[in-house]
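Reviewers of the previous submission asked for a worked example of the structure-prediction workflow described in the proposal, so we include one complete record here. The input consisted solely of the amino acid sequence. No template or homolog information was supplied to the procedure at any stage.
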Amino acid sequence: MAGGGGGGAAVAMPRSKFKLPTGRKRARIEIIPLIDVMFFLLAAFMMVSLSMQKMKTPRMDLAVAKTASDDFKADLLNIAVERNGQVSLGRTNITLATLDEVLAVAAKRNTNTPIFISGDRETTHGSINSVLDRVRRAGFLRVSFTVESAGAPAQP
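From that input alone, the workflow returned the following structure tokens.
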């Protein structure tokens, strides 16, 4: 007596004499429509993400900060990039070759010297990026971008 509950002999269940007119069907999961829906969603998200990208290089537009202040100290380097691409170290105009020499000398002293890069609102991203690349190639570790204060008058 296997697993039964009573004390009598096992009783076999009689088979039904009636058959279903449609027969017995198994449940079937259709995945083809699911694949179609997922492909449509993938294509839709790809098209939306491609249309969101801009192919133009934006101009550098520095943010305005309320706590910004002028800070010219001897133990840091202030590099400014004007809208025409001219580079200044402190208040002195220099060429990119001279900037490389100054950065090499300063890097020999200390690569932890803070470097502050600032740019005019109309300065192109390429000009700022060129200066940043030269600073990184010199080996400096502490590089920041400066902003103007919200209450400061605009530079002429």
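The first helix runs from residue 32 to 52. We consider this example representative of the routine output the project will generate in years two and three.
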